[in-house]
Amino acid sequence: MLIESRPVTDPEIGALVVAQQRELREADGGLDGQVTVTHEDIHYLAVVLGGRAVACGGIQALDADTGELKRMYVRPAYRGRGIARQLLPALEELALQRGHSVLCLETGTYLPAAIGLYTSCGYEPIPVYGEYVGNPYSVCFAKRLPVTA
Hints:
Strand content: 25-35%
Order of helices and strands: EHEEEHEHEE
CATH architecture: 3-Layer(aba) Sandwich
CATH class: Alpha Beta
Largest sheet: 7 strands, mixed
Strand order of the largest sheet: 1-2-3-4-5-7-6
Low-confidence stretches: 33-38
CATH topology: Aminopeptidase
Radius of gyration: 14 Å
Structural class: alpha+beta
Number of strands: 7
Shape: globular
């Protein structure tokens, strides 16, 4: 397994984001506001197996100290192998490299596996923020990142 940086314009990143959003629309009943485009200011990592990107995640700056974890997704055929659990610390390291001391995220209340992953990795519930305010299916988490020497 290889975890590598990919540009926002990478076609495999685009395909993973589209697949993620399609799956989320099916899970949440197609809430308005779901987007299938990548954001230009997200820095992506991809998990590559057998030459194919099978998972991704990105970091977007909210402010100088705070990054937001975005678009973390593992293709269904590759779940249950610990890929997300290995990708998450790589994304945290990327956030540290980008100067963030706090990493926050939003996920759906209907995604217990995601909530379980984040809480088991030290993320704590925080009030819903930003564009997620008012969405009854949103739950947000944050983690203070350890400063490494």
